[in-house]
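Example for tutorial group B:
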């Protein structure tokens, strides 16, 4: 096979067995890899009704056919499992070097089964695979684990691991690689912790075979030029990172503030990308084969928050900043470093603190509950301490570790949780941006922007400009973006490559890398297949079209002030058209005709 390595690694942690299997060529072509193949195997091998933290759940690390090639920004892999935060299918994408290194070692995918009786890690050196004791690593942070395992195995190895948050089964724990790259959202790190799997260490010395290297190189040059010419992919993200969006969203009144009470934060610039670049940034940072370099290597010298590491990204700066009523960039950055070191999703962490602050100010959570922690909006010290307590499993941090939905529900007020399918929504107010609300509501893994980033056309004007305030056309563009994103995730490329590239470009890269013939339509059909496959898994797990909804606050409470004053989400106007375009019935269930057309 070209592009793919043609081999799946299956590791049973309970039995301690390691076997290899051939990757069927027809499945590879039909699902590509990453999110696609991972979801296929979950659907075939796992009962969707199982407890996500039980040994019956499986944990899949899957690269794509472009992972490890010189395609632009082709350094991604996906961690696929049933997510404990949501109960939905979880596919969390991460960049860095792990995906390419897995391919160089000779594997397209690792399927972990069962639960080890004691903490272990996996060491993969090409065709040599070992299960090793990780008892001495249990309790160590992500940087400590990464450093220790590279010393123990190979300095050039890539380490994907969990921190103490994953060990403690924090429901929004991440799988971290290269210390600052995260397979975040949905709690994939908690699943890894439930299996007593501390880390996966990979060193590969092989290569990804391409049928016609010159033709592939020409395609890479052509597609890379498109990204470099794009104002977002070519320069904006390198200069200011994703945090540049703080001011852009605030200026249109779409920056969720104080747990979505408001959508405009007067001092937002203090935590924006421009300020970060001027004050804390040491250099841009990119993943394997990256020509964008959106990552931020940062350092805080203030003794109160001293530290260095990766970030913060836009979602992090927002969730730990304006969503909590905070504009202290150094404090936000310190909280971000704690999340990275302990392996926690910053979106859910910050949003859960914001929810707790809302409940606290409403008199629902009492000071006695928080052991004196004054969780009021704008309280910088309380925010940082809340992150620390969650990371260490101390006091009120144990409740925060459950995410905002379970926290608010435990106090009898789930409506305070700004979630979809129990996952916290990101930093775009769907009252001010209609399409993103539809994307949130129909996302296969709960509140999520990277399942269909309609912010591109609605805010950034990429690849076309759409009025953010209207509902017309939003059902179609949401479906298109969701399908394209699914295919991108399955290919092994970064979502940000779409700042310049579309389905036709992805088809050219896949054809040149694999020797198979892909068209733009075929690529979009693969994305459609993946999205419907995820929908089927979720419905079998107990979800239904009734879960395609937004918090009542966003439907009933108009934005109180700012450029988008008076707006609410008009989800009900878009959902029926979206279902129809998808080929689903009025209840949001994929029809037999739709499934047959996709070969499902």
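The residue assignment follows.
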């Amino acid at each position: 096979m070209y592009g793919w390595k043609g081999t799946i690694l299956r590791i049973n942690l309970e039995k301690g067995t390691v076997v290899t299997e051939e990757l069927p060529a027809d499945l590879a072509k039909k699902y590509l890899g990453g999110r696609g193949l991972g979801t296929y195997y979950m659907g075939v091998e796992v009962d969707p009704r199982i407890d996500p933290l039980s040994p019956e759940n499986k944990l899949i690390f899957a690269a794509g056919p472009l992972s490890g090639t010189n395609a632009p920004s082709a350094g991604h892999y996906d961690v696929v499992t049933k997510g404990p935060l949501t109960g939905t299918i979880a596919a969390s994408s991460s960049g860095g070097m792990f995906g390419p290194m897995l391919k160089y070692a000779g594997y397209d995918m690792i399927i972990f089964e069962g639960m080890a009786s004691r903490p272990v890690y996996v060491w993969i050196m090409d065709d040599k695979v070992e299960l090793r004791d990780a008892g001495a690593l249990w309790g160590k942070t992500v940087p400590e684990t990464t450093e220790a395992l590279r010393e123990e195995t190979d300095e050039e190895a890539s380490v994907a691991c969990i921190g103490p948050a994953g060990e403690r089964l924090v429901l929004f724990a991440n799988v971290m690689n290269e210390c600052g790259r995260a397979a975040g959202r949905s709690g994939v790190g908690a699943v890894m912790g439930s299996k007593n799997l501390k880390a996966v260490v990979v060193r590969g010395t092989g290569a990804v075979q391409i049928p016609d290297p010159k033709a592939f190189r020409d395609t890479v040059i052509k597609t890379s030029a498109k990204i470099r010419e794009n104002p977002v992919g070519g320069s904006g993200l390198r200069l200011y990172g994703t945090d540049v969006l703080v001011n852009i969203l605030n200026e249109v009144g779409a920056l969720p503030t104080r747990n979505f009470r408001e959508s405009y934060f007067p001092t937002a610039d203090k935590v924006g990308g421009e300020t970060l670049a001027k004050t804390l940034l040491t250099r841009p940072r990119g993943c394997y084969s990256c020509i964008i370099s959106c990552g931020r290597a940062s350092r805080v010298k203030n003794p109160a928050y001293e530290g260095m590491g990766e970030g913060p990204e836009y979602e992090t700066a927002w969730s730990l900043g304006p969503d909590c009523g905070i504009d202290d960039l150094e404090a936000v950055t310190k909280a971000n470093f704690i999340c990275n070191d302990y392996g926690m999703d910053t979106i859910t962490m910050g949003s859960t603190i914001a929810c707790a602050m809302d409940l606290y100010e409403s008199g629902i959570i009492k000071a006695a509950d928080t052991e004196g922690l004054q969780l009021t909006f704008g309280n910088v010290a309380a925010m940082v301490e809340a992150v620390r307590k969650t990371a260490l499993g101390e006091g009120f941090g144990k409740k925060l570790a459950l995410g905002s939905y379970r926290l608010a529900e435990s106090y009898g007020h789930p409506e305070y949780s700004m979630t979809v399918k129990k996952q916290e929504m990101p930093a775009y107010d769907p009252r001010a941006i209609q399409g993103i609300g539809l994307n949130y509501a129909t996302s296969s893994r709960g509140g999520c922007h990277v399942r269909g980033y309609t912010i591109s056309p609605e805010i950034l004007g990429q690849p076309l400009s759409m009025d953010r305030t209207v509902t017309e056309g939003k059902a179609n563009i949401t479906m298109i973006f969701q399908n394209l994103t699914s295919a991108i995730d399955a290919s092994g490329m970064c979502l940000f490559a779409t700042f310049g590239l579309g389905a036709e470009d992805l088809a050219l890269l896949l054809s040149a890398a694999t020797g198979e013939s892909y068209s733009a339509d075929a690529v979009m059909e693969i994305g459609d297949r993946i999205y419907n496959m995820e929908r089927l898994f979720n419905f079998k797990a107990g979800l239904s079209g009734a879960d395609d909804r937004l918090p009542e606050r966003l439907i009933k409470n108009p934005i109180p002030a700012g450029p988008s004053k008076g707006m609410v989400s008009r989800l009900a106007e878009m959902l029926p058209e979206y279902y129809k375009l998808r080929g689903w019935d009025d209840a949001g269930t994929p029809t037999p005709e739709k499934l047959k057309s996709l070969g499902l």
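Residues 520-540 form the longest helix (21 residues). Compare this with the pattern of hydrophobic and polar residues in the output above.
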